[in-house]
Each structure stands twice: as structure tokens, then as C-alpha cells.
Amino acid sequence: MLFRSPPPVEEDAGAADAGTKVATGGGGASGPCAGSCTGTAGGDLASAVRGAAGGARGCYERALRQNSGLQGRLTVRLRVDPGGTVCGASIGRDEIHAAEVSSCVLGIFRGRKFPAPQGGCVDMDVPLSFTPKDAK
Fold first, then answer.
1. Where are the beta strands (DSSP E) in 6-136?
2. 3-class SS at 50?
3. Which residues are bridge partners to 132 per DSSP?
4. For residues 83 and 111, what is the distance between their CA atoms, to the nearest angstrom?
């Protein structure tokens, strides 16, 4: 069974209304995150994840100092256990191709505690779009 929220609206990383997409799937996790996740991300969880995603802008800004042409999209795949702890974080799509940005963004999410999902663990895709502020 697949749980999805409406298609995400990709906003500039750090924007308060960056979208999240919920999906299900397996993974190499063990314990409460083993196997398929059948939970759903309630409003509190989705909002907290969007808030945490705002920290990704700082990762990008630091990398931008070294490469002023750096821009692109990045999707972070999260698995949140039934208690709300991130038990898995990885890069799902990487169009920015900057290891320092990917590593920093993953550090924002790994091991973080969020509001508990409804009905068990949940997989979430967090789309981020990075463009220099003066390029808008």
C-alpha cells in the first residue's frame, strides 16, 4: 500500500513552505524501521521536517562561497521510526553534485527527533532546490 501526500512544491531550500512527499518502501534498517513502513506523516511531522529542511540553506551558502555557480536540486529520503526518530537518511536525487552540501544536509536530519508518524514508521522524500539568492 502506498501513502502519498499531494505532489511536493519545490521551493528554494530554507523556505518555510518547502514540500514533502510521503512514500513507502523497504530499506536496510533494523528494529522499528525494518521492512516496509505503513505509517503516514501527519501535519505536525510534515511541518517539523519542513522546518528542519530550512537549515539546508546554510549548507548551500557555505558551499556557494567556494563555487559561486553552484545550484540544483537535492532530494533527501528519510525514514522516521514510530517514535519520531530519523532512523535512515540518504540522498535520493542529486542534481547539485556537491558532496559537502549533501553531507551537511544529511547531518541536519540523521538521528533527529520529530513528532511521531501516525500508524508506524514512515518514509518521506524532502525535495530541496538550491539557487543563489540574487539569481531569483
1. 21-23, 72-80, 86-94, 122-130
2. helix
3. none
4. 12
For residue 40, what is its C-alpha cell? Answer: 503516514
The predicted pLDDT at position 27 comes to 42
Q: Which of 36, 33, 43 is nearest to 5 (CA)?
A: 43
pLDDT at 84 over 80: yes
Sequence-distant (≥ 6) Cβ neighbours of residue 28 within 8 angstroms: 88
* Whole-number CA gyration radius for the chain: 15
CA distance 19 to 128: 8
φ and ψ at residue 98, rounded to 5 degrees: -130, 105
CA 134 to each of CA 68, 69, 117: distance values in angstroms, whole numbers, following the listed order: 11, 12, 37
Q: Dump pLDDT digits (tens) for 65-81.
A: 999 999 999 999 999 99
> How large is the average pLDDT for residues 86-92?
95
